[in-house]
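The record is passed on directly below:
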Amino acid sequence: SVLISIGEKITYNNTMRDIVPFYVKGYFGSQQYTFGPEITQLAIFDKIVGGTIDFNQVDVNLDFDNGFGIDAQLIINQFTTINTNSGGNASLVHSIMGTPLNLNRAQETFSVPEVNYSNYNVFMNTANSNIDQLIEVLPNQLQYEIDMNINPLGNVSGGNDFVFKKHPLKVNLNVEFPLSLIASNLTLADTVDLSLSSDNSKREIIDGTLFLYAENGFPFDAAIVLDMYDNNMNFIKTLTVNNQILAAPVDANFRVFQKKSSKVSIPLSSSDIDDLYKAGKMVVKIAFTTQPQTQFLKIYEEYVVDIKIVGDFSYNVNPN
């Protein structure tokens, strides 16, 4: 209990911090912002570790969807793809580079959804840009720098600019490359687990051969490399793979008309077997090369490759 005397008062202070408004309206002024240079990570080509690819056609739509009730002007100063593994990079050459792009303001609906987005679309292909070169470096990074001016014409809304928290300015990059290409040693890699146990004292593998049987329906030759690692990804050795999977033959229209059978042998010495017991991981690398090498080849839905692996081993048997 507290005794309050005449003339005394209670003061209560309340402070709000880090407020994020749901909705703001007014005139936001003419302001300039710069975004970047910034780098965005790309994962689409993560499993490709080498080789080259040449696309016959690449179509790209760069969409700007403005959810702000503000007119905006964008200037793209840099748009570069980078492959940090190979050191390759390519910068976009297109009429939008350095050119002001005027984005109209969104319209308030006073309903749900609260706004109608305005859209600005830029179409790029191999005829009006070098967009194919940006894809062919097999990038894992995108570097960009963009200037944005808001209300470049001043207070044209009469103080009725608005922003809803959940309706931002969105940028979408939609890339379509029809599967017509030339590939040269285009190498894909993936990691698989190994669990060859040597605990069975009554039977132990001495040596042998793995046989890979392939029915290839693609117009690609494929070379195979098998690298063994321990569970900590310390390299142990590379298994020798003889021959390669052969490309399926194509007709006069460069379309596969029958599958190509291949048999690939992977001999395993006694030391190979010992290393297999030590290994916990295997990195499988497959390098594709289109045949014929100078012709763009289309990839069709019915193209498949069937692979079967058979082991022929010698065992040390303990009858006890």
About this structure: The CA atoms of residues 86 and 243 lie 27 Å apart.
